[in-house]
């Protein structure tokens, strides 16, 4: 992939011109008052080295099936393609280091959900707050456009250059007080950046805890993540079947994965707080049963404005089947038997694998009935399961 080898994109001063330190401070303070846990200014120029780093990551295929990333290189290289007036950015950080709520009663509630998905979708929750911040900026005579995740911006690069934290070995942005469990947002503005902090020093030292904790060895030596091995990728973004060789390593990860963030000493020392994002018990401990029993329409209605909606019912039922296979609790066999008749081939295939993990008479009985599944992908897994190829011994 070709990228511009010239210097960082030079952005001409237009629009609001020099932001007086007072205006810059006022906007930063407004962000903190609105509930963001940290905010720092940075220039909107993107260094060529970051674009090259992103391009090499793509060239190596680390984006797995996230094809949309490949189409966005030039837009990521110059944020003026997102906001023509961009001169500077106020980088915003919000903690999702929640205290776990109480578990609701009833249903089948097993499997771990990553903390960012414990609250209503952060894109939706943060939108009105960011709109308020845009309005404050307008009152200060600054034009601004807020971006959270969806815009083609190398957000962690912006955050690191703003000095708000550093990219740890996990590739996550780490903040000394908030740790690694944070969400990033960027407010692009037409103000010339005020005095900018030095990029944060790397505070990983000799620690390699995140690399060791990753169940699937997805963190590479050069501080990047290979999505083709990452549980967060498979459980959130990936459609279809999950590679067989990774499934046992998923353990009880139902949606997303925080293993490399939880283990980080900066997270373990961080206080637990989340002002803007509130955990919802039904998202922290979801009942897996309706994912096997109800329709996609039911799912969309119940999980609208949640991160689960990205994986859809079929993705969540597939993830649940893998968790149930890894847990091997006989009380869950009926759900996997039910899943063998699912409309989605990926759900039936994952259930066949999971029943193969049990390899008990009841599980094999369910599998016998699925031998004639019309989908070749499902049938292959059923036959392998019946040959006890997936049987897990404890
Ligand atoms: C694609 C994506 C993923 C992918 C790939 C993850 C990855 N590490 O790249 C998958 C689906 C696996 C994923 C998982 C998760 N994600 Co994600 N993801 C993104 C997304 C949309 C793009 C990230 C990206 O561009 N990756 C490609 C790599 C190469 O980019 P990068 O890590 O930012 O690399 C920069 C530098 O390393 C540098 N660089 C890279 N190589 C080199 C080489 C050289 C020589 C140089 C100089 C520089 C350099 O350039 C890059 C740009 O600055 C961002 C949102 C956004 N728009 O940025 C969220 C984002 C990174 N994700 C986020 C989160 C929370 C997660 C999860 C924790 C969710 C979960 N609990 O399940 C996991 C964490 C996994 C992990 N350890 O990274 C947050 C991170 C917040 C933070 N504090 O850092 C973001 C910023 C979303 C947000 N708005 O909050 N994610
Ligand atoms: S999110 Fe999980 S699977 Fe992905 S890199 Fe971190 S620990 Fe590994
Ligand atoms: S766990 Fe250790 S190596 Fe990984 S990001 Fe945290 S401090 Fe850095």
Q: What is the fold's blueprint, element by element?
A:
Layout: E1 17-18, H1 21-33, E2 38-43, H2 48-59, H3 73-77, E3 88-95, E4 112-113, H4 122-139, E5 144-147, H5 155-161, E6 166-167, E7 173-174, E8 182-189, E9 191-192, H6 209-213, H7 231-237, H8 244-247, E10 253-255, H9 259-262, H10 265-268, H11 281-284, H12 289-293, H13 296-303, H14 308-327, H15 333-339, H16 345-358, H17 361-369, H18 376-386
Parallel strand pairs: 1-9, 4-10
Antiparallel strand pairs: 2-3, 3-8, 5-8, 6-7
One iron/sulfur cluster binds next to helix 7 and helix 9.
Summarize the structure.
The protein is of the alpha/beta class and 394 residues long.
Structure write-up:
A hairpin with a 5-residue loop joins strand 6 (166-167) and strand 7. Helix 14 runs parallel beside helix 16 and helix 16 (345-358) packs parallel to helix 18 (376-386). The chain has a four-stranded antiparallel sheet with strand order 2-3-8-5, with helices on both faces. The chain is an alpha/beta fold and 394 residues long. The model is unreliable at 1-18 (pLDDT under 50). It has two domains: 1-97 and 121-194 and 202-229, NADH Oxidase; 230-386, Leucine-rich Repeat Variant (Alpha Horseshoe), CATH 1.25.10. It is built from 18 helices and ten strands. The radius of gyration is 23 Å and the shape is elongated. The chain has helices at residues 21-33, 48-59, 73-77, 122-139, 155-161, 209-213, 231-237, 244-247, 259-262, 265-268, 281-284, 289-293, 296-303, 308-327, 333-339, 345-358, 361-369, 376-386, and strands spanning 17-18, 38-43, 88-95, 112-113, 144-147, 166-167, 173-174, 182-189, 191-192, 253-255. The structure holds cobalamin and iron/sulfur cluster (2 copies). Residues 170, 214, 216, 218-219, 225, 230-232, 257, 259-260 line the site of one iron/sulfur cluster.
